[in-house]
């Protein structure tokens, strides 16, 4: 007789929690629903203007990460950083050329000297190069504008 109210109390507590959790879930999925309708339209506009940063990230992880590392910080005295790099934020023509023609000899990146060889990555399409360089210039601590396919084509023709 004494225990009964406690059990009832506990039961209503559990049921109450379940109801409030399921209400939250419904609310979240409802708001997610309207969000997912809006996003594709916004994305379409962005994609038309500049390369898709997600695709640029995929290119980076596949072709550049083995040397420059996932977070772009490189390997001391072996591979220079593309994170917060004065090269990446610098002249677009120069970095497009690094991808298309490779790079060797002494270079200075953020005050550190590297003298290694980067093999050319000219098997990448113009679009992939624009995507990966745009990803780098807009991410990993870099703050510059994106690189267009047209700019890559101009350097490849030279
Ligand atoms: C096999 C290793 C290797 C791969 C793969 C590689 N790089 Fe490099 N990268 C280097 C090395 C080494 C240098 C410096 C060359 C030197 O010392 O002259 C360099 C230099 C650079 C530079 C100029 C310096 C700096 O750190 O900002 C950029 C930009 C760059 N790489 C971007 C890329 C991108 C983008 C990719 C992928 C498409 C890539 N690299 C793939 C090894 C690599």
Tell me briefly what this model is.
The protein has 158 residues and is mainly alpha-helical.
Structure description:
This protein is mainly alpha-helical. The chain has 2 domains: 1-49; 53-157, Cytochrome c-like domain (Cytochrome Bc1 Complex, Chain D, domain 2). The chain contains 5 helices and 2 strands, in the order H-H-H-E-E-H-H. The protein has helices at 4-49, 53-68, 92-101, 126-138, 149-157, and strands spanning 103-109, 112-118. Strands 1-2 form a two-stranded antiparallel sheet. Strand 1 and strand 2 form a beta hairpin. The N and C termini lie far apart (92 Å). The model is unreliable at 7-48 (pLDDT under 50). The site of heme C has 28 residues, from helix 2, helix 3, strand 1 and strand 2.
Descriptors:
binds heme C, 2 domains, mainly alpha, Cytochrome Bc1 Complex, Chain D, domain 2, two-stranded antiparallel ribbon
- Order of strands, main sheet, comes to 1-2
What is the CA-CA span between the terminal residues?
92 Å
Count up the helices. Answer: 5
Question: What is the average of the pLDDT values?
Answer: 80
Helix content: 55-70%
Low-pLDDT segments, ≥5 res: 7-48
Name the helix and strand elements from N-terminus to C-terminus, one letter apiece. HHHEEHH
CATH topology of the largest domain: Cytochrome Bc1 Complex, Chain D, domain 2
- DSSP strand count: 2
Structural class: mainly alpha
CATH class of the largest domain: Mainly Alpha
The CATH architecture of the largest domain comes to: Orthogonal Bundle
- From the alpha-carbon coordinates, what is the Rg to the nearest angstrom? 25 Å
Shape: globular
């Amino acid at each position: 007789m004494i225990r009964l109210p406690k059990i009832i109390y506990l039961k209503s507590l559990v049921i109450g929690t379940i109801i409030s959790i399921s209400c939250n879930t419904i609310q979240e999925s409802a708001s997610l629903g309207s969000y997912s309708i809006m996003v594709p339209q916004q994305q379409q506009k962005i994609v038309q203007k500049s390369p898709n940063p997600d695709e640029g990230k995929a290119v980076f992880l596949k072709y550049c990460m083995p040397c420059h590392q996932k977070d772009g910080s490189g390997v001391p005295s072996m591979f220079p950083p593309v994170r917060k790099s004065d090269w990446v934020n610098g002249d677009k023509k120069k970095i497009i050329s690094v991808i298309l023609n490779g790079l060797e000899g002494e270079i200075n990146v953020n005050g550190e000297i590297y003298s290694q060889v980067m093999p050319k990555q000219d098997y990448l399409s113009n679009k992939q190069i624009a995507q990966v360089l745009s990803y780098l210039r807009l991410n990993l601590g870099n703050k510059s504008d994106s690189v267009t396919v047209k700019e890559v084509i101009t350097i490849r023709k030279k």
